[in-house]
């Protein structure tokens, strides 16, 4: 356990940031999952709508440091590629 005032503060901040980052990571994953489910169902319109909703969350995750920038770009790119390949 922290023995200094500053260390106690860091512990509080870390706990709060962990919760925020966990929630943000969950929103990113949920967005990706929604797109994948729409792709699996074969519904191109729904998949496009889901990607349009997921893309800002993925980018926000990258901006806030939950994802690396290239990881976010790669995920959006691959999702878009899979949607485009749908008949």
What do these coordinates show?
With 87 residues, this protein is mainly alpha-helical. The protein has a single domain, classed as Methane Monooxygenase Hydroxylase, Chain G, domain 1, CATH 1.20.58. Helix 1 packs antiparallel against helix 2, helix 1 packs parallel to helix 3 and helix 2 packs antiparallel against helix 3. The chain is elongated, with a radius of gyration of 17 Å.
Beta-strand content: under 5%
Number of helical segments with 4 or more residues: 3
- Can you identify the CATH class? Mainly Alpha
Q: State the fourth-level CATH superfamily.
A: Ribosomal protein S20
Number of strands: 0
**3D shape:** elongated
Corresponding CATH architecture: Up-down Bundle
Q: Structural class per helix/strand content? A: mainly alpha
Cα separation of the termini:
58 Å
Low-confidence spans: pLDDT under 50, at least 5 residues?
none
Largest sheet: none
User: What is the CATH T-level topology?
Assistant: Methane Monooxygenase Hydroxylase, Chain G, domain 1
Number of domains: 1
Q: Considering DSSP H and I runs of 4 or more, what fraction of the residues is helical?
A: over 70%
Order of helices and strands: HHH
Average pLDDT, rounded to a whole number, is 96
| Rg | 17 Å
